[in-house]
Amino acid sequence: MPRSYSRAARENLNATSADEPLLMALEITHPDLAEPVRVVSDTQGITLEGHEFVACPFRCTLPDDMDTRQPRARLEVDNVGRELTQWLDDSRGGQGAKCRMIQVLRSSPEVIEFDLTLDLSNLVINQSVVSGELGFVDTLNRPAVNLQYRPETAPGLF
């Protein structure tokens, strides 16, 4: 999954003291949500593609580029409000949620430097943090049938 950043973004990534860092924005969608959750990891909100992204502290690691496995990323959001916890309870742990990761520079929000949509899974909640994994559902390595006839599942056949 090669990434191609603009010249300004590459300069900021390679600088030891960048003038403006890349902003990470998330758009979380779920069938139970009427409107997607849109947040940006900054002190002030930003408008991207005509949508307002609200400033919210979170930590997100970008997916790795290893050829031997599917890309995995990690997301941690501070558990500061009851809204997120309530949504997770209502949606059975956020099952079926998708998360779009977007990187932009504040000076040019119309140029999307990085854009990737991943499945959100394995959500864990504690008193201070809501964390989860971002990746693709591994459908190719799932069994074709739910029940397999083996000695431990059907001992009468063996």
Outline the structure in words.
It comes from Crenobacter cavernae. This is DUF1833 domain-containing protein. Pfam families: DUF1833. The protein is mainly β and 158 residues long. It has one domain: Roll (Pnp Oxidase, Chain A). The chain is 11% helix and 35% strand. The chain has 2 helices and 9 strands. It has helices spanning 7-14, 82-90, and strands spanning 23-29, 37-40, 46-48, 51-55, 58-61, 72-78, 98-104, 114-125, 129-135. Strands 3-4-2-1-7-8-9-6-5 form a 9-stranded mixed β-sheet, with no helix packed on it. The longest helix has 9 residues, at 82-90. The chain is globular, with a radius of gyration of 19 Å. The mean pLDDT is 82.
Number of domains: 1
| Helical amount | 10-25%
Following the backbone from N to C, one meets helices and strands in this order, namely HEEEEEEHEEE
Shape: globular
The CATH architecture classification is Roll
Structural class: mainly beta
Helical stretch count? 2
Query: Beta fraction of the residues?
Result: 35-45%
> What is the average per-residue confidence, as pLDDT, rounded to a whole number?
82
Q: Uncertain runs with pLDDT below 50, 5 residues or more?
A: none
Q: What is the straight-line distance between the termini?
A: 47 Å
Strand order of the largest sheet: 3-4-2-1-7-8-9-6-5
Which helices and strands occur, and which strands form pairs?
Blueprint: H1 7-14, E1 23-29, E2 37-40, E3 46-48, E4 51-55, E5 58-61, E6 72-78, H2 82-90, E7 98-104, E8 114-125, E9 129-135
Parallel strand pairs: 2-4
Antiparallel strand pairs: 1-2, 1-7, 3-4, 5-6, 6-9, 7-8, 8-9
